[in-house]
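Before relying on records like the one below, remember that each one covers exactly one chain. Contacts with other chains, cofactors or solvent are not represented anywhere in the record.
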Amino acid sequence: MAQTYLNQRKNSSERRRRLKICFRMFHVWVAPGSRLPAASRRIGKKNAPLQYWNNRYEAEDGYLFGREPNTFVTSQAHLFGPGTTVLAIADGEGRNGVFAARQGARVTSVDFSAPALKRARKLAAEYDVDITFEQGDVYEWRGTGDGYDIVLAIFIQFAPPAKRAALFDSIRRLVKPGGLVVMQGYRPEQIAYKTGGPPQIENMYTSELLRDAFAGFDIQHLEEYDRIIEEGSGHSGLSALIDMIARRPD
């Protein structure tokens, strides 16, 4: 067991090393104090998040966050029955959208990373489920139709506070009246654990923040807890979690 753990950490370190090389090759980050032409700075700033995530996915030999669905999502399997419409935002390599589709739901999976979507389509094909995959930026994606029975938002904490408000507004709009927001994220304590998620404490969630963000919704479930999770190399180890299920009023 100990040797297996050491091998896993060694492999994780190697993946991080390769990712750093990708950053340098593609110039995702600009060193403090350096200058680029104005047009290049604008293009770089706009495309940096997409290039960052493309690099992360491409640096992995397998699935960055694993092939298995999130544990909180599996605990809510009864919500994803036949005919239920589900929007999985920032669904990455598709593990959660595919799980919902396996329960019979009609799933739309949205992500802006082409490498992630390629793996998501492969996973859906392996499970022989039909999913509508759309490549789009969740800040700008408007959705189609009259909304969704469930909006699935799992670890979407790439959003800083300045953009989080608009993202939450979009989630509230995209869920149908009477529909549910199913969300899991990290709490501020996660910064010390360093087992996944962004290093910015301001991106973390608290119960108070989520209650304020979804004021007017019926908060049916809201829980803070610590648990060991193993979701590929992206989420691995003791984690400070927060779960929420909120119902939009009819």
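Residues 182 and 245 are 5 Å apart (CA to CA).
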